Amino acid sequence: MPQTLFEKIWNRHVIVKRGENEALLHVDRNFVHEGSFHAFGALAAEGRKVRKPRQTFATADHYVPTLNREKGEAAVTDPEMRNMLDLFAKNTRANDITHYYSLEHPQQGIVHVVGPELGITQPGLVITCGDSHTPTHGAFGAYAVGIGASQLKQILATQCLWQKKPKTLRVTVDGALPPGVTAKDIVLAIIAKIGTAGGTSHAVEFAGAAIRALSMEGRLTVCNMATELGARSGMVAPDDTTYTYLAGREFAPKGSHWDKALQFWRSLPTDDGARFDREVTLAAAQLAPMVTWGTSPEEAISINAAVPDPASAGDANKRSHMEQALRYMELTPGTPVDGLKIDRAFIGTCTNGRIEDLRAAAAVLKGRKSLVPAWVSPGSTTVKRQAEAEGLDKIFIAAGFDWRASGCSSCAATNGDTVPAGERCASTSNRNFEGRQGKGARTHLMSPAMVAAAAVTGKLTDVRKLMGIQ
Amino acid sequence: MQPFTKVTGVAAPLELANIDTDKIIPARFLRRLREPGYEKLAFHDIRYDADGKDRADFVLNQAPYKSAKILVAGANFGCGSSREAAVYVMWDYGIRSVIAPSFGDIHYGNELQNGMLPVVLPDATCQKLRQQLRDQPGAQITVDLETQTVTGPDGATYRFEIDPSHKERLLKGLDDIGLVMQNIKEIEAFEKKHHAELPWLA
Question: Best residue in A56, A433, A434, A445 to probe B by mutation, most B CBs within 10 Å?
Fold first, then answer.
């Protein structure tokens, strides 16, 4: 029987079944970060240790400072934040985790940037992390799931995960993207179409010509925000783009193992005629640069549209959420989003902190000046070095952006990189929830090029006007 | 894990849809250790004003609802971040069950892992229950896992669905590590074969 990419990976990782629909899955790679301290604490309290330290990868990202990094941990002034970094070091040491990308490590970065760029993330694997944006890794054709602290503890103790089999959803984006429209716009359009619960309990495969045409960086952006569909996992079938990206990376298979891996990876894409529980399609040619106006990622519209009226919402849940979002964002229905004044701009995160994202923003910023305070936090220290080798840092600095160190920064804002209350921030991150970037902060999500355009004009702007496209 | 069998208690209506885990516990508190007083962080930014005083418009600040053991919420409750601290703060507050039309996937699992029962009931039923709770502040609801029923303030009962294995684990308070380690022979055999086939992953 024809199988989907998801089914092939699932079936290969089932150790035992329990009942009809539940399985004990083998976990190939488990990632941890400072926020994993509850799981490590519970593990130690039970007198257990990490069962497979070699399959466990640790990277400091949520609590690392993005300023004064040359000072190391001394740059962290808050004792509770420093405790997070100290606990992390202690827990990795106590559990013999040697793949540890600490604050000072030259390959440190956001977990969902480091995994892919070091080749730890590969097609056909089951990957877990105690972070909701773990579906990012699915861009390589892996089944990657975010978990809470209790399940993380179980994985640390056993390298296995009990899971109910998710349903499957294929989102097909046909055709070619118009110039100036990016991966971020695709995924915001998908979320706007099916909603933040549209993928709940589903493994989502992104397919179609527009997805195939994306680079690995673009696919990572799309899969990252599968989380904002409520999806268990997002995935893209591996192809030559995937294999070319992986070749030669530190943890990628080498020599005869590479040939064996290629053979395995080529067997993974969804078979013709395989059935999904649900199918959704979008036409790439109809997409425009997107921005969010509200406090849920589904409250996203084209930059050429106006803030919608809650009265237009079909369901009461949605209407009440929209009304609250308008109050929080201090917006009125009917206001065009193009031209909305901003106070800050932020580029980075596991969604859009990769080299291609920085290149796209720099292309818009070159020869221009930001009118608002703005900063860049590259997705990893490796990305930062690469950007500096290409001279992108000079473009950002000349445009008035702070060129900072790598971390989650103002996405989770756990490290103190917050946006002041009442300020409007153009951001490449993935969530515009109330208070996400700081108490009272107002977040507008968009692509890196759109954030750059907002910075240099001081307002939400269709980047295509600055690119000479429109 | 403490088993969950049946809970009867004051229920509070939470009107908003898409209550994300950032709302249940804001990110800046995630570095706090789970110590006495942790329950004060629950719903922090919608519960207190800028001066740290109780906001009168937040339901759990209103006298009859303060001792709530059950929440009846809008759709997509607990969406967003995977932070299990969202469950810890609710548990420490005294919440034992959340009733909603739908839940964020990871949060749903996190509740189950901590002996809390997430109950899915249709949107119309949740709206009706919330209306009854607004009309009779301090009214009680019963959530019975064994019979898979919710009994509203008016005595009406509603059946809910739950995965049989989730039900069994909650009723018995079973720990997943124990369940996994029963299969250690199969696990070791699987790993040997898997890594023989894909040796670069070993």
Answer: A433
